[in-house]
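### Sample
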Amino acid sequence: MASRLPEVEEATWHRTPSLKVAGKGFARLRTEAEGGLVLMCELDEKAALLATGDAAFYTTPHYDGYGAILVDLAKVDPGQLAELVEQAWRLKASAKLRKVLDGDS
């Protein structure tokens, strides 16, 4: 899903599998009891996702006030997940890389 995004690399982050762009993490699998995928996002986007009541999106006290949403991969719509992965990538990618993705290079 993220392989179409420029300069995505598979790496580790907090000793778990993750995706990074230019060394900056934007997604990682959690091994904590609650599991899930951590995706970077804006705080208003996080609030909106949580407000939907969709069981695919959740948080824990550790992530309160932090720009990341937790995603249950077994419950999330694949199309929505693809959009959220791209948004997370955009938060960490340089303006130059965003232009490459948008075809403005």
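Residues 78-92 form the longest helix (15 residues). This sample (YjbR protein) is used throughout the tutorial notebook.
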